[in-house]
Amino acid sequence: MNLNDKVSVTLTAAGAATLNARSRESNAMIGKPGAFKTTHAEGDEHHTQMWVLMETFGSSISMVSPTPFKGNEVRLDP
Fold first, then answer.
1. Of 75, 71, 5, 24, nearest to 43 (Cα)?
2. Domain extents for the chain?
3. Are the beta carbons of 69 and 10 closer than 8 angstroms?
4. Closest C-alpha among 64, 67, 53 to residue 13
């Protein structure tokens, strides 16, 4: 696997909340409300590169945090 590979995950409620918060921060930082989607929900599929997934969710993944992905599964996209 390469960190540039495209991957997908199914978001849990915790994962959707993390992604929405990160998207709101990004929108505020670039001064463009709506540039990044902030309405992710539990069960949504999220597609991105592996390094972006790690950057986005890395700080929210620990032994004591709710898992951001259904079944803790990261799938490699074709």
1. 71
2. 6-76
3. yes
4. 67
21-48: pLDDT as tens digits:
999 999 999 999 999 999 999 999 999 9
Task: Give the separation between CA 58 and CA 53, rounded to whole angstroms.
Answer: 8
Question: pLDDT at residue 50 above 90?
Answer: yes
For the entire predicted model, the pTM comes to 0.91
Pairing of strands 6-10, 75-76: antiparallel
> Could you identify the residue written with the tokens 């495209």?
6
Rounded CA separation 15/58 (Å): 11
Contact 67, 11 (CB under 8 A): no
**DSSP letter assigned to residue 69:** B
Closest CA relative to residue 56, chosen from 11, 43, 39: 11
